[in-house]
Design a protein that fits this description.
The protein is globular and about 65 Å long. It starts with a helix and ends with a helix. It is α/β, with parallel strands linked by helices. Helices cover 27% and strands 17% of the residues. Strands 1-6-5-2-3-4 form a 6-stranded mixed beta sheet. It has one domain: Glutaredoxin (3-Layer(aba) Sandwich), CATH 3.40.30.10.
Length: 162
């Protein structure tokens, strides 16, 4: 009876986890935020996003997004204090977007996302997530995270732990 109850509870939890998955999530749940199992090949050198990011002596956070999320991310970033701890940049696959606090870089061929080892989400297309680069120019953390806008405190914790 106990085994049946345990199997039912665990099966229900597994079904709930599958039900909450979205099209921007990683196809492999083990690689999804918090991305703990993604640490195998890390750290590795970070590709240049711009002339000044990443730069030696200062951590960086490279946000990978889509044009429809830039406004919300730009409104949320100043309230986090992240810009005091790290250089920030937003990488978009296409389209131009304005963000006063953070530079926005276009990556039409996906080479930046590929250079950072960002995985494609379930629905394919460009990744939505972030990579954290340490002050020595090495990628220390990367993950798909479609809810990153609401979890910027977590990003700050990762940067603070470098």
């Amino acid at each position: 009876m106990i085994w049946l109850l345990a199997a039912t509870v665990l099966g229900g939890l597994l079904a709930a986890a599958e039900f909450t998955r979205g099209p921007l999530d990683d196809p492999d749940p083990a690689q999804q935020r918090p991305g703990i199992l993604d640490l195998g090949p890390l750290p590795e050198p970070a590709s240049a996003v711009s002339e000044s990011i990443p730069r030696l002596g200062r951590p960086a956070v490279v946000f990978f997004g889509r044009p429809d999320m830039v406004d919300a991310l730009c409104r949320a970033l100043p309230n986090t204090g992240l810009s005091g701890d790290a250089d920030l940049v937003i990488v978009l696959p296409t389209g131009t977007a304005e963000c006063r606090a953070v530079p926005v870089i276009e990556d039409p061929d996906g080479s930046l996302a590929e250079g950072y080892g960002m995985r494609s989400p379930i629905a394919d297309g460009s990744p939505v997530g972030y990579a954290v680069v340490d002050d020595r120019g090495r990628i220390r953390y990367r993950t798909l995270d479609p809810a990153v806008i609401t979890e910027l405190g977590e990003v700050r914790t990762i940067v603070a732990a470098l």
